[in-house]
Structures are given as C-alpha cells and as structure tokens.
Amino acid sequence: MRKLIGVEFFKLCKRWMPYVLLLALLAITLLPIVLDYTDYQNRYQSAIDKYPELEDVIKEVEVGHGGNSGITVYIDQSDPQNSFNVTPDEEWEKEHLVRQLSNAKESLVLPWAMDGIFSSIPGLGMFLAAFLTASVIGAEYGWGTLRQTLAKGTSRSNYLTAKLLAISIAIIGGVLVVVLVGFIATLITSMLVHGGMEWSGFAGHFFAPLGRTLLILAVYMAMAAFFAVLLRSSAAGLAVVVVWLIAETIIIGFMGNSTGWLAEVPNYLIGTNTNELLSLNSFNPPDDIKPWWQSCGILLAYITVFITAACYFFRRQDLTA
Amino acid sequence: MQDEAVIRTDGLTKRFGSARRNILAVDDLNIEVQRGSIFGFLGPNGSGKTTTIGMLLGLIRPTSGSMELFGQDTRQGLPPLLRRTSAVLENSPFYPYLSGRDNLEVFSRTMPNADKNRIDEVLKTVGLRNRAKSKTRTYSLGMRQRLSIAIALLSDPEIIILDEPTNGLDPSGIIEISDLIGELGQQGKTIFLSSHLLHEVEQVCNYVAVLNKGRVIAQGPVDELLHKGKMLQVRVSDMDAAVALLIDAEWIKTIETEEDERLIFVEADEEKFPDINEMLVKGGIRVLEMKKAEDSLEDFFLEAIEGKEAWAGNA
Predict the structure, then answer these.
(1) Domains of chain B, with CATH numbers?
(2) pTM attached to this predicted model
(3) Which site from A56, A99, A174, B85 is most exposed, i.e. has the minimal number of CB atoms within 10 Å?
C-alpha cells in the first residue's frame, strides 16, 4: 500500500495541476490579507492625518473581541495626553474611526487573523478539492492507465484506497502550506499593525478551524471521487458536484420556507452543514447554529456513503477500452 | 512446449447492457493456451477479442463461465496470478505528461516482481533509449506500442498478452514487433497474441483460435488449420481416373477436386507424397504438376467466418 501511495504521489507531483490549484488557494487566501492591510493602512493614514492624536490610541487599541460588540476603545478623557478639545461630533467620529480600525486590525493580527484564513480556504478549497479528486481519478479512465495498472495485478481496493489516501494527504498538505503562508503573512501584518501577535487562544483559533476546514474539503473530495468513479470521467465527476451544489441551494431555498418535515430536509444537506461549520470559522459566529458535532456527524455520514459507494462501483465496474 | 494449460476458459460469456437490451460480446468461449506456445487470437474488429482479454486481466467481469490462469480459478483471487503475466493493451495507455522512463518507473512500482534496474535494458530492447526522457504525448503510435512492450518486459512474465500490438504501425514497425514476439516465444514465454491481421498470426503463432461474433469458430495448431504439409496439389491428365485410383488408399485422408483446372487436392502425411506420384504414374495417369498446397490463413479465415468452413477441431 505504501508503494502504491508513493506511486500516486509521484504521479501527482509530476502534474502541473496540483500546483496551479495550490497557487489559486494561496491567492484567494492571501488576497484578502493584502486588501485588508491596504485598507487598514489607508484608513489609518486618513485617520491620523485628520486626528494625529489618535495614533497612539489606535496602536494600543485591543483587538479580538469579536467585532463591534466586544470592542473596547480606550479614549481616556481624564488622561492629560488625551484630553483634547473636541466637539461631540468629533468625539463620535474619532471613536467610530478607532472602532473601524480596530475591526480592520482584527483580520490582520494573530491569532484572530487565522479566522479569516480559515474562512477563505474552504470557500474555494472545496471546489479545488473536488477538482483535484475528479481530475486525478477520472483522468485514469480517460488515458486508459487505470486498465494498464489493474492489468498488472494491483487489486482494485488497494488502488482506490491508495489514490484516495494520496489525494487526502495532498489536500491536507496543500491546506497546511496555505495556512503556513497565511500565518507568516498575518504574522508580518501583526508586527506591522500591532507590534506583534497574541499567543493566548492561538490553539483555539488554529486546531478547531483546521479540523472543520479539512472536514468540509473531505466531503467534496469524497463526492467528487464517487462521481468520477461512477461516471468514469473527470469533467463529468466535477460537473455533477457543481450541479449538486446548485441543486442544494435551490432545495434549501424552497424547503427553507416550507413547514413540517420538508422544512427539516435542508438541515441534512451538505451545503447547510458546511455553511454552519464555515460560520464557526468566521470572526463572528452566529448564535443560532446547531452544535458543531451534529454538522460534523452529518458530513461524516456523507463521506462514508460516498466512499463506500465509490469502492462498491469501482470494484464491480467493467473497464472497457 | 510443455503440456500445461496456462490459460483456460470454460464457457466464458460476456453480455453488456441491461437484461432486456444487451450485446453478447463473448459467447461460450472455450480456449486453452499451452505453456510456451504463441497463441494467436484471431478475429475481425468487434469479434470479442479485447473483451476476452479484459476478462482474462480482471478488467471486465464475465457474465458466466470461468477462467483459469496457471491452473488456478481466477475467482479465487486474480491479482497474484496477474503478477505472473504482463499485458500490452490496445491503444497503449500511458500518462501523457510523464516521460517514457517515468511511465516505466510508475508501472514498475505497481508491479511487485518488476525490476526497476531493468528499465534501461528494456528501453534498449525496444529501441527507445534515445527518447526515454521525452513526454509520451510526443510519441508516435509505434513508439507507444514499443513502450507498452517495454512495460510488459519489466517483470519477466510467464505469459505476455498482447492486444493488437501492431495496430497502426508501419510495415517496418510491424516486422520489428513481430520479430520481438518471435524472440520472446523462443525464450519460452507464453504469448497470447490478439490480432485481426492474418499474416501476423500466421507468421508468428503456432496455435490459433478464430473468433467471430464472440464465438470461437475454429482453433488448433496453425499448421493443422492450414493443412500445412498435409495437402498435395496435383494437376493430372485425367482427373476422374486419378481420383478413382487414389480413393482406395487407406492412408489418404481426403481428396478434393477442382474440375476446371483438372486439379486434385490430396490430404495425406507428407512422407506419403512420393507414393501418390508413383501410384498415378503406375496407373497410367500423366502428372502435369505437383506441389504442396498450403491454404493461407486469410483463405481459411474468410471461409471460416462466412460459415463455409465446418472444421472446428481441437488439437
């Protein structure tokens, strides 16, 4: 099995496609950081241009309290340094600017910036995971190399298992690379806008979101694997995944407004549960979501069904020329 | 040739499609391939050759019937048996983004008994050493076929299954591949050669099964099928008298005539051919011409698939 996984990696590493997908994921993860930083710098510059006395306040402002609701802005009027002569309007504007900058800072300072990274990755990552999986599995049918390999005495179960493991490891590796690059990028922004990162609560902003992200990607990977095997094609496999996503959106739209058991259906769809997990990765998770383990359970059930079905069909299908 | 069947099928049948609308691709196929033989699997396109090979290699599930490889029922576990075989599949499937050498590397790693150190050797054998680093998408069809054979040779298999190995090759490529197959046969490997090219099978194989519409319509040693060395073609002055004279000889198996040409075709053991001449001359019949008559496989094949040939004996 280790040898087969090695072969799959060898093949994967020799293709340009995984690198392009990784670059796309890196771009989609780093772009918001760059944009946020640029936005922060613009706001900061215009704020201190207008109110130079705010410079120290902004530097010292606390972040990480979950957006507006928890932001604490210290403009201590009793402090002689801050006892500037302001009108109520100016007061309000200053506080508003500081709040805005505080919010903007939150996406740039670690560990809170990890929330932004883990919100970016699954959005595009699920398509990329599906694309990678459908492409790696489906192409073997198209090229005929699947027949060549199996004709050499590789068992079908071992072959598919090795392929899925190799894809899984590639996806995990890719996500870790993106997270690492994102971490480095936000470490730099943390230094630039906050003078450093906060270590407290880092694990909570890293491990749980990473787990949720990988679970979301795993569902789409399993779905793509199943359809690529069933339809024996990369394009068809990926197309069905996209159609599935669209269909779920429509179903959620229709059934969300219905009553009785129909209204319950969306709760068991992939999209609903990935969205719920995804919302836990965001800065401000909503309060009205079901417990994370329910969504995880449903998604794990989907993964099991897709992988089992893929194995079943793969073992039984005729591989004609 | 040792008397051991390394491939045996029994009532092998494959239907594609649903129960109502299906295509019978292979129908009750019974073949036996002896160790060390070069077995020709001959049939027109669409006759079921590739489907049969697919079933032998575990790529296609038979609808009914059974197969044995090396005397073991494939239902007991095909992968270990396949590791003792190699196949050159139709259209030579490769990873187009990998070089020839990388393709060999990939396939050698999936074959437990393949020797990676033989990559250079097999590349040299098939004449691809100079293009080993080129991506296979740049290969010509002939190069792809040769690379396919190189992969088959990596593991030093006991059986080599070749599905249309000369398909699309130019005449020199066909000769090269045919020579290579002959060499492999001489090394004692069992060759299962599927082809629709009659002369290829006739030249290379010593045993042949003819397949048409999924059924074996004839099989046996090539020599026997073509009556090689057993038919004597004689042109005589009086055909009826010649037949009357020869018909009583017990050692003569068959006599056929062709009146327009005053030809008789006598089937007998080769050592009896001089006796036929002697009988005719002593009987006062003038022998105008005498030569060994050999059907070409093409003649046989066309007769067989048109249903004119009733022979379907086993060796």
Answers:
(1) 5-84+158-225 (3.40.50.300), 231-293 (3.30.70.100)
(2) 0.79
(3) A56
